[in-house]
Amino acid sequence: MPKKVRYEELFPHEMESIMRDKPIVYLPFGTLEWHGLHLALGNDAIKAYEICLRAAEKSGGVVAPPTYWAIGGMPHPWTTRFNDDLICELFYAIFEQMEHVGFKVAVAVTGHYGVEQVYALKKSACDFMYKSAMIVAPMPEYEVAYEKGYRGDHAAKWETSILWALRPELVDMGRLSKNLEEPLEGVMGEDPRVHASRELGEEVVNHIVERISEIADRLFNRISPLDKERYIRALSVQTTILSKVLGMREEGYPVLRSADYEAFITNLWSGKYVEAIKIGEFLLLKLREMQKSLHQA
Known about the structure:
Blueprint (H helix, E strand, L loop, with lengths): L11 H10 L2 E6 L13 H17 L2 E2 L20 H18 L3 E6 L4 H15 L5 E6 L16 H10 L25 H4 L2 H24 L3 H24 L4 H4 L2 H11 L3 H24 L1
Parallel strand pairs: 1-2, 1-3, 3-4
């Protein structure tokens, strides 16, 4: 029988036991957004929630209910969008409350990938950690699955496969045209009709759960005060990178798809913070040079 890990279902004595043993909270974030004709509108938060449940069941901790309010989204029916400042305040307030409850580590997983959303989550985490003791690990789940070739998509190969593995009743491939020449509305990435499978989803989900569990354990059990400062510094560098990319838009996005950025992410979540900082500062220098060239053009 799986461990009880859902915050809202725990009795006080159960929560007290968890807080004595492993005061780690998993915070799933997503949105309500069109994800093609074949995926449920709540895909992003549902995906993050199910991943967090599996991580907590594997290695301990508590999973908070998912947050469906987010920044950005596809311009399609039934998509909700909220103001950036409002969502940043919400993220920060959630972190504050989790520390107030007594958690020592929060793993914040967003299944919604827009750069604005990822930036807001990471910036809120940095701002919070500058003033607080609780450690926050903010990430879209694909940041720990680069080794699998997963770098995020939208209702395409990867998101379809993952939801198929996690909640198969929320995937209806029969809704998609069998004519492969016909484009799919709201799908960005490799065609799910050709490339998605439940087996692929199970493989990448197992990998993500393993990695997230490792990160939570490292931040709770095996991080020194010096490494904590380095971790926050590395995360702050990433936040600055994302801020500059947002300011440059199309011209800056290739940096986020580069091998150097992938190396930065890999080092960050492997606990190699000094290496991550070096690579991140190199990327910032590159972005500044790109900005200078754009202004001169």
